[in-house]
């Protein structure tokens, strides 16, 4: 099969081709696994974190990609309830131990044995992949494979972020950064909290206009002043500046939810400007989002289907994975980027 391989940590300032197109053996499913013929795989900023070593794979080479939709072409002998020929999705959570205190409480995202698709095991930048059947998801018929792919991470982790934000209908919600996850969170918030104004902080005028098109009450630059302060802000950026400025835009008792696996270090010096009275006083709260659970994915897919969510997508061939990644690195983003490794 054809696959895009990450063979070592690289700097994207030094190369525009971090992944190598190669022939790779078609994987064989274990007794509890599914073999999927990949129809679509979303491109996520976390892949940039893997490539540049902020969340490095434990073994090389590795096939990235954790927003995968494919057709079941084979199954392990213990898999009885998923049919060959059915369509399944795979998300960032590849597996968890299932027995620790976190797993028993449904917090498998915090499990010390958490393994990530496309980082700890091979992912979906390929024509085929294997995944544990218990960690795959039925894809609602309302979505094409390309539409469904970004829902499995950008959408599901955006849903988790929105739940952690803890807003009520009528609360003012802010979004800082407006890529794949941000545009899905905006649509979801408008559906769940119809009386809640949503304001969007984004670097480019193109992203700001896109946010308004999707229903944002206001949009402006990262450091702009919105018409009113926010009860909660969700940060989906790789940088520290949006964190610092978001804290200033919160109401007393407000909550900042940081939705990022890792933050880049280039602007970490800004943390020296953190001022207790201006940024943190008045019981403001900061929460991080750590991975996702299976229930996040299932719940979000159901919600997305019920509201007929249609993500904005840009489609690329598998061969163009490097171009898609570099466009993301250079902030050429409108909605979500999706690879089509196979004809579907």
3D structure, described in words:
The chain has 344 residues and is of the alpha/beta class. The protein folds into two domains: 2-153 and 292-340, Medium-chain alcohol dehydrogenases, catalytic domain (Quinone Oxidoreductase, Chain A, domain 1, Alpha-Beta Complex); 156-288, 3-Layer(aba) Sandwich (Rossmann fold), CATH 3.40.50.720. It has ten helices and 17 strands. The chain has helices at residues 45-51, 101-104, 145-148, 154-165, 180-192, 205-213, 241-248, 276-280, 294-306, 321-329, and strands at 2-6, 19-23, 33-43, 68-75, 87-90, 93-95, 115-116, 128-132, 136-138, 173-176, 198-201, 218-220, 230-235, 250-258, 285-288, 313-317, 336-340. Strands 3, 4, 5, 8, 9, 16 and 17 form a seven-stranded mixed sheet that branches. Helix 8 (276-280) links the parallel strand 14 and strand 15. Helix 4 packs across helix 9 (294-306). The radius of gyration is 20 Å and the shape is globular. 49% of the residues are buried. The mean pLDDT is 95.
């Amino acid at each position: 099969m054809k696959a895009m391989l990450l063979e070592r940590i690289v700097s994207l300032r030094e190369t525009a081709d971090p992944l190598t197109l190669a022939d790779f053996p078609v994987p064989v499913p274990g007794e509890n696994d599914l073999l999927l013929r990949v129809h679509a795989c979303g491109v996520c900023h976390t892949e940039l974190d893997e490539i540049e070593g902020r969340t490095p794979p434990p073994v090389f080479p590795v096939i990235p990609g954790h927003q995968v939709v494919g057709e079941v072409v084979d199954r392990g002998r213990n898999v009885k309830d998923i049919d060959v020929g059915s369509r399944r999705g795979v998300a960032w959570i590849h597996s968890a131990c299932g027995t620790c205190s976190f797993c028993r409480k449904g917090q498998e995202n915090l499990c010390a044995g958490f393994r990530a698709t496309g980082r700890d095991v091979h992912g979906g930048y390929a024509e085929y992949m294997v995944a544990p059947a218990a960690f795959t998801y039925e894809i609602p018929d309302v979505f094409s494979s390309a539409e469904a792919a970004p829902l499995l991470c950008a959408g599901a982790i955006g849903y988790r972020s929105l739940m952690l934000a803890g807003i009520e209908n009528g609360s003012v919600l802010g979004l800082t950064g407006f890529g794949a996850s941000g545009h899905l969170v905006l649509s979801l918030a408008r559906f769940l909290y119809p009386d809640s104004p949503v304001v969007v902080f984004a670097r480019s005028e193109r992203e700001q206009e896109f946010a308004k098109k999707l229903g944002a009450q206001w949009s402006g630059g990262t450091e702009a002043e919105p018409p009113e302060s926010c009860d909660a802000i969700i940060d989906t950026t790789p940088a520290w500046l949006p964190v610092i400025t978001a804290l200033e835009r919160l109401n007393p008792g407000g909550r900042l939810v940081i939705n990022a696996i890792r933050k880049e270090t280039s602007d970490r010096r800004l943390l020296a400007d953190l001022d207790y009275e201006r940024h943190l006083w008045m019981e403001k709260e900061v929460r991080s989002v750590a991975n996702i659970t299976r229930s996040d994915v299932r719940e979000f897919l159901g919600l997305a289907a019920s509201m007929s969510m249609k993500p904005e997508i840009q489609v690329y061939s598998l061969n163009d994975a490097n171009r898609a990644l570099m466009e993301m690195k250079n902030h050429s983003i409108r909605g979500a980027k999706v690879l089509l490794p196979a004809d579907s």
